[in-house]
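Posted in: Structural Biology > Protein-Ligand Complexes

Title: Requesting predicted complex, zinc ion in pocket

I'd be grateful if someone could produce the 3D structure tokens for the following input. Sequence and ligand are given below.
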Amino acid sequence: MYNILKLKSKFKTVTKETTRVLKIMILGFILIIAILGIKYKPVYEVKIADKTIGYIQNEAAFKELINGKIINKEVRNVDNISLASEPQYEMKLIQRTQDTNEEEIIAKLDEEKVITYKFYAVNVNGKNKAYVDTIEEAEEVVSKIKKEHKRDGIKLDIVVNEKYTQKLDEVKTDKIEIAEKSVENEIEHLLDEKEAKEAIAVIEGINVSVLPVSGRISSRFGVTSSIRSGAHTGLDIACSEGTDIKVVAKGKVVFAQNNGPYGNLVKVDHGNGVETWYAHCSKIYAKVGEKVKSGDVIATVGTTGNSTGPHLHLEIRIKGEAINPQKYLYK
Ligand SMILES: [Zn+2]
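-- Reply #1 --
Done. Output follows.
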């Protein structure tokens, strides 16, 4: 019994001592924390590729700052902005007197950002022919061109290609009007190629690819007749009233109205001094100044002016002088 009591008291002494040491330790720890707390503050160290570039107070707030100041910049043609390398964050204690430097770090990250630019190419039959800034502009060019060249009879594959680059000087875009012009030029080039390939005659370098009408030759060039004052300056092709008259080559309408003995007359200038005239028309569709391409219907056959029945009076003029159309057509 005595032994047990002695043991118990000994245990009590040991427990008391332990508690005392523990208390001192806790107090000491609190003291150290307090001293550290006065002298130091917790921050995040920011590293890029293992190199310390500064300190920030709050990681989440700093990430927001990166998004607002670097990533989300609404700039023309910018598709995406990213950081060259992702920063790493590590908690650290630094002296309270030392400031964090968020703005400096942002400036440094901004210098190393990677920008991807985006623009659009309008591609005609496999070749990029024009570049614009937005998909809306590209689609506008495509729909306009498709509408205008619906009946050209040339194979046209017009598509929009997205283009990406990280070099701003590679973003070579044009205003929509210029882009349209570039695509238009390419199509004109394709039309010229088609006309050259399909040419049935070449007059002073001008490709003629269609006959204006098909019909019976009713009066040849140079003949004299009681109904005319001089020799016949054109070729008459008889066909029924209202037949479509097609322009024989591309050009520009320079005359489109009634002209006495010619009746309703359309004159088309093809360049190189070559003009074709279409006379005695019943209806005129063409307008002065209008650009036409070969095969366009410019008028209909009639018998207006000095005429005895429906026919097309066709003239070919080179530098103003009427030549025999049968040198080239209806041979
Ligand atoms: Zn005639």
